[in-house]
Amino acid sequence: MSRATKLAPLLLVTAVPILLLLTFVGGSGAERPTDPCTTISVPGGEQVGDTQLDAEQMQVATEAVRAVRAFEATADKPHAAVIVLATGFQESQLRNLDYGDRDSLGFLQQRPSQGWGTPDQVRDVTYATTTFLHHLIEVPGWETRRVTEVAADVQRPAEEYRGLYEQWVPLATDLAEQLWSTSGSAATVNTPPTDGTTSAVPGLVRLHHANLFVGKNQAQFREDLGAVVADRPDFVTLNEVYHRSPGDLQPDGYQAWHPAGPRDARDTAVLWRTDTWTLAGKGTVLMHNRNVKWGTRYVNWVTLTAASGSIVSVISGHASPGGPGREGLYAEFRTRLVSLTAELGTQGPVLFGGDLNIQYPHRQPAQAKAFEDSYAAAGARTTYGVLGEPAGGWATGGAHFNATIDYIITAGALPVRHATTGLRHSDHRMLSAEIQLGGDPAGAATPLGSISGNTHACDPTMLAASGGAVVYPVPAHLASSNQNNWGSHGAHWSAWHTGTDFSVACGTPVLAAHAGTIEIDTSQSWAGEWLVKVTTGPRHLTTWYVHMQTLRVTPGQIVQPGQQIGEVGALGNVSGCHLHFEVHLKNGPIYGPDNVDPTTWLAVNLGKPTGTER
User: Fold this and answer.
1) Is the pLDDT confidence value at 30 over 80?
2) Distance CA 513, CA 602 (A)
3) Angle between helices 55-70 and 169-182 (to 10 degrees)
4) Radius of gyration over alpha carbons of the chain, in Å?
5) I want to staple 208 with a disulfide (CB 3.0 to 4.6 A). Which of 165, 171, 233, 595 is the partner?
6) What is the CATH T-level fold of the domain 460-605, as seen in this structure?
7) CATH architecture of the domain formed by 204-446
């Protein structure tokens, strides 16, 4: 079984050298990405929602849904197809793999040694699906429980990965509906209910942020959360919720992104109204990891769409307080938060809510000012100034009294009103902000093509290379080998580490992360025999692959996402087997300003069609 196929929710470290080629110009949001020249699709593939699937993925999906229809217990239950497809996306990106973790094989990564069948059988999509269904119908409540819980009961992954199947449910639902209807069935796929209320104009939104004190009991927590959502804000960001269950964080009419995984990854959550907003993307980003108390911090983010086409991203974060052993962590958090905002901001406004633990700014003006300056340079603003009017959530007493610690920050959006409100059981006041997305009261969408860096030249080579969805540069179940070390410093690097390393065994397949044309440079000794690039053209996205021991591509060859381009090696400036992977948004030089954190880039773009990545 896969251990971490799409691990944006657990692995991510954002930029260390700050990325300030920021494009916070996304009006009230962006339309779904389009190519200004033409719409490109992979031969034999299909568009499902806003995701382009290639021919292999569609073939696997078609055979799997057909098997669900042929299985007597699920013949009239398309929800079973959703579960199978979501599991397949998580385990293999819906590809019939001939490799995997230990002896795992096939699109469901079933293990012959665990009784799932012979190697040939588990790579037979019909057989693998049918075997899965035999186990599925034995799971209590499989038709009504969350997909990720049911899939995990069948697949039995490690505990920290049980929640990862849920991220694929929207795509799996769209695909199941598409394939089920093709077969002539009138059945409908289960969809989340809405509360039936009408929504406000998407161009004017409200965000509430609350740090709900971790020490309160369940009844006290529910009372405070009820107060937070009482006036039905569009979005809510929460801190100190690592010990709360998913059900605790989904009041009526709201959905939440609160990932499974390490405790620190669960410390924050984002909620949104389901009658107004639809989930388009989500992730969890590791900001820093130091073996001291409060030394590890993540942020959680979602990208949401409205029926009008508006897009907005919302980030929830909780910075570490200063103190012995945590020197420099706040600067890391600030820098990486700006970089993540830059990545998300290319498609529309970005809103942040969180406890930033800037204690007593009048005593630490340099630290507070550095924070505000970083965001000002990025085209963003705080709804309460760091050093000006009362900022953030003025705590009600104790060590945090008069501390500026909680903030709402906007990029590509204009805060028009703000307030703080006391909560009965929390030691922080709730922040509220009314925000005009892009300053456009009508909420009209801004085409993504008008945003800097997201248009494509009508170049035949680029168009030929378009198609498919962005994937990890190593087999997906090995994504957890990502060392998240872009921007690191040390004896191995003359300046700073310009990519991220996937620490996997020599001989592991190296995969093209996106569609493009192969370039090979043999003059870079640090890279080994070959520095391989997959490029979409001059001044456009290019990814680098380094230290390989063998090649399977030639210069000028057009490759598709997931196509093997070589094998991991230990050649060049290395201390062991690994893949060094870089992302250059504008096909620039190694230390160019377009060199961005690959982990963040993967978090934002994984699963999206080539040509829409940012």
Assistant:
1) no
2) 9
3) 70
4) 24
5) 233
6) Glucose Permease (Domain IIA) (2.70.70)
7) 4-Layer Sandwich (3.60)
